[in-house]
Design goal:
Length: 246
C-alpha cells in the first residue's frame, strides 16, 4: 500500500528524506511522474533487484511515452538505483553487503556533519518541542512493539534535524544516499530488536543539540551512527544469508 506523504513543516517538504510514495502522482508532469513511479517501485521491491526491462517496456508499464521515462531513468542511474546498458535495457541494481557498507559510511559521515551545523545554528523553542515530541513518539512505538512505526518515526526525526542544517547541497546529497539504503532497511525490518538503545542515543544527541554544543553533538551522533550501522550490517548479513543471496 502506498505510504502517506511525509508531513510538511514550515511550508515545505523535508528535503533530507524522500520516502517512496505515490501521493499526488496523477497531478505530476510526465517526467516527474515517471521518476516517482519508478523510484517507488524500486525502493519498495515491486521491481526486484536484477530485473531488466527495455525502455519501451518501462514506458508501457507506466503508461507513458519513452521521453519522460528516459529522463527518469537517467536520474535514477545518477542515484545508483539502476544500470543502463545501451540496447540491453535498464537493470534494477542489486544491493550487496559491501554496497550497503559503503553507502552507510558515506551517509553517516554526511549526517554527522549536518548535525554539527544544526548545533552551531541552535534550536528554537518550537524546533526543540517538535524534536522532543518525536523522541517521545518513538519511545511509545517501542513500548508497543510497533517496529515499523518506529522506523518511520526514526526517519522523520533524523530528517527533521538535517532539514535545520542550512545547507541545501548537503541535504540533497543525504537524500540520494538515503534512497540507496532504503531497500536494505526494509529487508532488515522484521529482524530488528526493540530499539531501546537508539531511543536513548536520540535523547542524548538531542540534549547536545539543545546545548548548542557542536563537539558533543558530533561525538554523540558519531557514536550513534557507528553502533546503528554495525547493527544494520549484521542484520542485512543475516537477511541475505536466509534468502540464499549472501
Amino acid at each position: 500500500m502506498p505510504q502517506a506523504e511525509p508531513p510538511r513543516m514550515r511550508g515545505k517538504v523535508r528535503s533530507a528524506r524522500s520516502i517512496p510514495s505515490l501521493h499526488g502522482l496523477t497531478e505530476m508532469a510526465a517526467r516527474e511522474r515517471a521518476y516517482h513511479d519508478l523510484r517507488y517501485r524500486i525502493l519498495t521491491g515491486r521491481l526486484a533487484p536484477g530485473t531488466t526491462l527495455l525502455e519501451t517496456e518501462l514506458a508501457g508499464l507506466l503508461s507513458l511515452s519513452r521521453t519522460p521515462v528516459r529522463e527518469a531513468v537517467i536520474k535514477l542511474e545518477e542515484e545508483g538505483l539502476v544500470e543502463v546498458r545501451p540496447r540491453h535495457g535498464v537493470t534494477i541494481k542489486a544491493l550487496s553487503l559491501q554496497d550497503f557498507a559503503n553507502i552507510l559510511d558515506t551517509y553517516s559521515a554526511l549526517e554527522v556533519r549536518a548535525y554539527e551545523l544544526v548545533a552551531a545554528r541552535g534550536l528554537t523553542p518550537e524546533q526543540t518541542r517538535l524534536l522532543e515530541r518525536m523522541v517521545e513518539d518513538m519511545e511509545t512505538a517501542t513500548a508497543t512493539g510497533d517496529i515499523a512505526r518506529w522506523s518511520d518515526l526514526d526517519d522523520e526525526f533524523h530528517a527533521e534535524i538535517v532539514s535545520l542544517c542550512g545547507n541545501q547541497r548537503l541535504q540533497t546529497a543525504l537524500n540520494a544516499f538515503w534512497g540507496q539504503q532504503y531497500r536494505a532497511r526494509m529487508m532488515i525490518l522484521p529482524l530488528r530488536p526493540l530499539p531501546d538503545e537508539s531511543n536513548a542515543e536520540h535523547r542524548a544527541v538531542l540534549d547536545a543539540l539543545k546545548l548548542g554544543d557542536r563537539d558533543l553533538t558530533r561525538e554523540r551522533q558519531n557514536a550513534h551512527r557507528d553502533r546503528a550501522d554495525k547493527q544494520q550490517l549484521e542484520l542485512l548479513r543475516r537477511s541475505l544469508g536466509s534468502s540464499g543471496l549472501a
